[in-house]
Each structure stands twice: as C-alpha cells, then as structure tokens.
Design goal:
- The chain is an alpha+beta fold and 248 residues long.
- Helices cover 27% and strands 33% of the residues.
- The chain is globular, with a radius of gyration of 20 Å.
- It starts with a strand and ends with a strand.
Length: 248
C-alpha cells in the first residue's frame, strides 16, 4: 500500500502462491486488467510499488497507460466494444466492418436464421452441455480441462449476479449454449459451446445474439476477454494491450 501523509492513495493487490513460490495478483492467475490501483495524481509513484517487491513474482495481464507500465513486456490483448453511442447492432457493424467482411457476416447470420433457431433464456441446467460442447470444439485447448474449472463455473452460478445463459435450439435440438454476465456498465461474454459440425455458422450467430443483448441492456462495454480465440480479430473488437512483469 502507498500512503501520502498517512492517507492511503494506492495499492498493488498481490498474494503469495506457495506452489509456484511467487507473488501473483490477488485472485489468482486468470485475472485481467491488473495493476496498481491508485489515484491519477499519484500515477508517477507506480514504479515504487513494483520496485518494492522483494521476492520472485509472476504478474500477468497488467493494464496501464503510464509510461512505466507500457515498458513492460507485452503479453496479450484484451478485446472489447464501446457501445456508449450504439443503439442497435446494425450501427455497430457499419462502424466496425468494411463492406466485404460485413456482407460475409450478414450472409452467415441469414444462413442460421433460415434454420429458425429458438433461444431459451437462463436455463442454467444447460451449463453441463456448454462445457461438453466446448471441450468437443477445442479438445485439449478447452479451458474446461483445467483443474476444477467445471466446478468453479458451477459454483459461480450460485452467486447473486445478473447471469445471462442462452440456449440455442435448431429443429428442437440444443445446438449451442452461451454464458455471459452483466455487471454495472459491462456485459461480459464468458464462454460458449456450440455444435459446429452440424451447424457451421452457429457460433457466429451466438456471438451476434450476445452483442445484441448487450446493446439492448444499454451497457457501455461489451467485454470479450483476452486472446483472439479465432473470432475477435474478425469481429474488429477494440484491442487493449496487457503486459507482464516477472521478477526473480
């Protein structure tokens, strides 16, 4: 913690990981947009917080506009849309897509709409199907192969948050499930699982419907998290660079 004349003005929230024997950001390694929490007028003091770390540390996904943080090693991008002045998805697509890519996107959406999909809202029992389909799509790369990840998501749904689960039916068969959460002025698209074998463009439609939901909810930010995962660059989301700081 940092103080000015006895008043706390900033904090670098860390925890010590006994297994890796290193400091990491509070909450563990799967956090995003980490960094020193400090009043803007004290941003010149940010280097002091990192220099104060006296043991091995592995700090990931650091966000910061100050020169010191921006000199850290680049790690990955975080992807978002700013929806503050967007009233419908057509406006967003017009602003973000060039004519050729826009036409290709609309073609995919219409192909799925021709199948007359039905969306069921908030049937949270479909979480298991989401995880099953996700593992089929991504194989060993699926995050649900990580230890305890399935239990973490199941426990997460017990929290009193504004979760949005969408189950997509085609010809009365469940073909995709997505999970998002609305918190404050942000709609976070968390994860999805889709039967892409039988419905090749359904994944695109699922993203489309979640963006529409975010716009309808009148949030400021659509948060798609980190890593491209094969779609975020194609959707032309805004990129925020995140950095890493390793010591010892």
């Amino acid at each position: 913690m940092g103080f000015d004349k006895g008043v706390q003005v900033g904090i670098l929230p860390l925890q010590y990981n006994e297994k890796s024997q290193a400091y990491e950001f509070f909450g563990g390694g799967y956090m995003e947009k980490n960094g020193v929490l400090i009043e803007d007028k004290y941003s010149n003091c940010i280097p002091q917080f990192y220099n104060f770390i006296d043991k091995h540390c592995n700090l990931n996904d650091i966000d910061g506009n100050d020169p010191f943080t921006q000199n850290f090693e680049f790690e990955e991008y975080k992807y978002t849309y700013n929806l503050l002045d967007i009233s419908n998805i057509d406006e967003l697509i017009a602003a973000k897509f060039k004519s050729k890519s826009k036409a290709n996107l609309i073609k995919k959406i219409k192909q799925v709409e021709a199948k007359k999909p039905v969306v069921i809202e908030n049937n949270f029992q479909d979480l298991n199907l989401l995880m099953e389909l996700n593992k089929k799509n991504f194989g060993q790369d699926s995050s649900f192969n990580f230890p305890f990840r399935e239990k973490i998501f199941a426990d997460l749904l017990n929290l009193k948050l504004d979760f949005r689960m969408k189950t997509f039916l085609i010809q009365d068969q469940k073909a995709s499930v997505s999970l998002s959460v609305k918190y404050g002025d942000t709609y976070t698209y968390m994860n999805a699982g889709t039967n892409k074998v039988d419905h090749p463009n359904l994944g695109t439609y699922v993203i489309w419907e979640n963006i529409k939901q975010a716009i309808n909810d009148k949030v400021e930010i659509f948060d798609a998290g980190v890593e491209d995962l094969g779609w975020k660059e194609r959707w032309h989301l805004d990129r925020t660079p995140l950095y890493k700081f390793i010591k010892g």
